[in-house]
Amino acid sequence: MAAPITIPDDAPFTPEQRAWLGGFLAQLLSGAPPAAQGPAVPVTVLFGSQTGTAEGLAKKLFKTLKKGNYEPEVHDLSAYDISRLPKEKNLLVITSTYGDGEPPDSALDFHKALMGDAAPRMDGVSFSVLALGDSSYPDFCKCGIEFDTRFEALGGTRIFKRVDCDVDVDAPYAEWSAGALAVIAPAASSAPAGGISSAEPAESGYSKKNPFPSTVVANFNLNGPGEKQTNHIAFSLAGSELEYEVGDALGVYPSNVPETVDELIAALPFKAGAVPLPDGGEAPLREALIHHYDIGTINKSVIQKWQQRSGSPFLRSLVEADDKKAFDDFCWGRDLIDLVIDHPADFTDAEDFVTVLKKLQPRLYSIASSPRAHPGEVHLCVGIVRYNSHGRKRGGICSTYLADRLEGGVKPRVFVHANKAFRLPEKGEVPVIMVGPGTGIAPFRAFLEERKATGSTGRNWLFFGNPYRKTDYLYEEELTGYLKDGTLSRLDLAWSRDQKEKIYVQNLIVGQGAELWAWLQEGAAFYVCGDASRMAKDVDQALHDVVAKHGGLSAEDAAAYVSGMKKDKRYLRDVY
User: How many CB atoms lie within 10 A of CB 65?
Assistant: First the structure.
């Protein structure tokens, strides 16, 4: 039987909404079918998704609405006609943000039109926004914030506050969806007609909430001698019943460096007692800091909370100035240990201390294998991040965990994250162009294995790059083998440091523009994986330039052509 659900006194609901929500939850727990009253309430759900999370939530909401007295629609923003906005009655929008505060690819055109002078008025349109993001990035939830602000500026009525999700989405989604429906439903009926008939079935098997402890069967450096390290890691899925498709990602739950945790605890002004864990229960502070709390990321929110307990004049001035660039500059290259040592704060005890910390989140990595080529296994290609900053040796939490902290039979906890927005063409005869420098090659190794295993006849063209051919040619034997057996029709390589003039994949794209345009004219799909902030932007510009030059199009018409490729799912990106 489900546990009772109570509505907190400080929850942001009016008495009417609270009454409706009480009925909603009572119905949900009892499983009693709702008695629909009054006409069905129209609700349009829009989503902008980069890795599939927003899309999944939108479709979950659509299913909930279908069970109640609603008339719902759900649309990918890439396929939504913005001229419809003034005709909507109730609009619920779920969108992610990626890179430097950019809209997801599927929402780019909608975002541009919405922010433009010709955007339609929204008088009479009720709306609410769920924004997905990660507060470790400077422009946290920027796309959702911009949608929310712009809808209101265009005359729309915000029926429930915007809710921002910081990586974890379940609780914020539940608050937002229940809050929005609590406002929408009474507008059409005095009864809680919008309640769903029963609770969603509990997940079974291994998942993000119940990760699989996997045995690592291979873990080695793909680079030659030197400082750069890129590990190929193979995980066993035996006994997990986990399944994946090429294009998906693998989530990995990391742990923090025990030595750093010990140094941190030694510098704290209290005894290290037991503390509550983010997902319930409790554990000794050391265990909690190693496995459950994020000590490798500080951001504006952490600094604001820390400053309230610290006598640091610098932190006080930083918080009072509230300057985004100053926050970003301070946070870059620093971890929690820097705050503990350089800006001591007073905490009553260990439990008080962990209230300023975020939950340690899993990392998502593009899967580098085809399940057909490696049954019972899943492979990753992980760049191991190590650097020196502010007098300390530092590293990526998850990448160094995978490289350094798996000895002694440690089994990383993993789960599959489906990414339906990054799939191979359904028809095997469609040509494929792949751009994946560095670890961006990961999904394309999987694509090539899959195309070979399925006997796809479409041609394959890969653009790969890294600093030096001698030390950084990842999967060289495999790629040259694919050239020999015909799986790869073309392989263009960019070694940025092997000559005086730096050469990147975007330079090769422009240089092979005529041939690339010919492939596009044949219906080729164009894929990009890797760094969002620079590489992906430069490749996108190179694609526009090729289309304009070799297609004989104006810049405006070239942009329309590329936009059409996105809508037709022929231009897909897995960028981070």
Answer: 26
In 222-262, beta strands by DSSP E:
230-236, 249-253
Angle of helix 142-153 relative to helix 108-115, nearest 10 degrees, comes to 40
User: Domain containing 168: what range?
Assistant: 15-187
Is 127 in contact with 93 (CB distance < 8 Å)?
yes
The pLDDT of residue 189 = 34
Average pLDDT over residues 478-493: 98
Q: Where are the beta strands (DSSP E) in 509-565?
A: 525-530
Rounded to an integer, the average pLDDT of 385-404 is 96
Instruction: Let me know whether 72 and 158 are in one domain.
Output: yes
Residue range 493-505: mean pLDDT, rounded? 97
Question: How far are the Cα atoms of 241, 250, 265, 416, 457 from residue 375, in angstroms, in the given order?
Answer: 12, 16, 44, 15, 23
Closest CA to 435 of 572, 567, 233: 572
* Residue from 214, 131, 119, 193 nearest 411 by CA: 214
Helix 300-307 and helix 313-321, axial crossing angle in degrees, nearest 10: 130
For residue 39, give the 3-state DSSP assignment. coil
Alpha carbon distance 194, 185 (integer Å): 6
| Percentage of the chain exceeding pLDDT 70 | 90
Judge contact between 532 and 98, C-beta under 8 A.
yes
DSSP bridge partners of 44: 73, 91
CATH of the domain at 371: 2.40.30.10
Whether residue 571 is found in the same domain as residue 488: yes
Q: How many CA atoms lie within 13 A of 365 on its CB side?
A: 29
Instruction: Tokens 């420098």: give the residue.
Output: 437
